[in-house]
Amino acid sequence: RARAQANLADLGPCRTQDGHPVSLYLNIGSVKDVRSGAQGVGLLRTEFLFLGRKETPSVAEQRAAYLELFNAFPGTRVVIRTLDAGADKPLPFLALPAEENPALGVRGLRTARLRPEVLDDQLAAIASAAAAASCEVWTMAPMVATPNEAAEFAAQARAHGLEHVGAMIEIPAAALRAARLLEHLDFLSIGTNDLGQYTMAADRQDGRLPDLLDPWQPALLELIALAAEAGGAAGKPVGVCGEAAADPRLAPVLVGLGVTSLSMAAAAVSAVHAALSARTLTQCRDLAAKARDAVDPAAAREAVAEMSRS
Ligand code: PEP
Ligand code: MG
To answer: What is the tens place of the pLDDT at every residue in 263-297?
Structure first.
């Protein structure tokens, strides 16, 4: 742990070989994931505070937990995600009805349709902690499907005084309409785990379909490109915080598609940093074009490997 911490601090900000900055952030699911020296947090999952609870944690309890995590990253940016629960991640206090098909049911932001006060309390706690924090807090919702959902979430978050409000892109409809979402939001963060599942109609919990869930699927790359291009046109950041961001061979492709930040587990940061530092932005764009054009994930990998050798 001590070595991992020292390494993160030593790495410094990430740039492509020609100086184009790419922010590298940590994915955090609890205090045990905290690493000093990190440039910031791209995905703070908040489920840890709610798991196994019969009652919702109070606003005061949530505020204290968020503030402790925020203050572990002074001077950086921390992107916190509101509760991502559903029938697949059951939270007793939500008392969600059993679902035939939880991945397509009331999960993520949709749970606020049944229990609006849970989201409202969480936003109040985040806003109060953000006001006292030594980092810049960005807040995003999981499983947003439509521009109206984005608009409602943004209005609610801003009513609590939150300044940087965004959404995860995990549903193809949201990627296809990213420009419309960005009319209401300050940033987007692509969750490739769910976006892959919904793009390929392949359950991410089902171990039998790894080829369809491969983050190199060109169809997934196309949707990432759409969201990134919408961000570029609007001048707003679009990151990736799913597992895809932790693959050092895929990271240059994602940057070439127009993604402005990557967020991953601490263990992946140094390899991704090295991969990006070794390539120019033009090379990243060439790799991205090849991967997007490939017929399947194996061909995408091979095209990128071949260009990297030459
Ligand atoms: C994702 O779907 O890619 C993501 C980062 O969210 P989670 O893995 O928590 O569903
Ligand atoms: Mg997800």
So the answer is: 999 999 999 999 999 999 999 999 999 999 999 99
Query: Six-digit token pair at 183?
Result: 């009319």
pLDDT band at 89 (very low <50, low <70, confident <90, very high): confident
- DSSP string of 8-61? HHHH-S-B-TT--B-EEEEEESSGGG--TT-SEEEEE--GGGTTT-SSPPPHHH
Closest ligand, as measured to the CA of 220: 1
* Annotated binding residues for phosphoenolpyruvate: 45, 81, 193-194, 204
Atom 3 in ligand 1: residue holding the nearest Cα: 191
| pLDDT, mean of residues 200-209 | 94
Q: Which amino acid is at 298?
A: A
Distance CA 274, CA 284 (A): 14
Nearest to 91 by CA among 115, 66, 68: 115
Q: Which residue has its alpha carbon closest to ligand 1 atom 6? A: 191
Ligand located closest to 196 CA = 1
- Residue ranges around ligand 1 (CB below 6 Å): 43, 45, 84, 170, 191-194, 241-242
Does the annotation count 14 as an active-site position?
no
Q: Which atom of ligand 1 is found nearest the CA of 45?
A: 9
Q: For the chain, how big is the Rg over CA atoms in Å?
A: 19
Q: How far is the CA of 219 from the centre of ligand 2 (A)?
A: 18
pLDDT tens-digit series, residues 225-259: 999 999 999 999 999 999 999 999 999 999 999 99
**Residue 212: per-residue pLDDT:** 98
ipTM of the modeled complex? 0.99
Distance CA 105, CA 58 (A): 26
Q: Separation of 242 CA from ligand 2 center, angstroms? A: 8
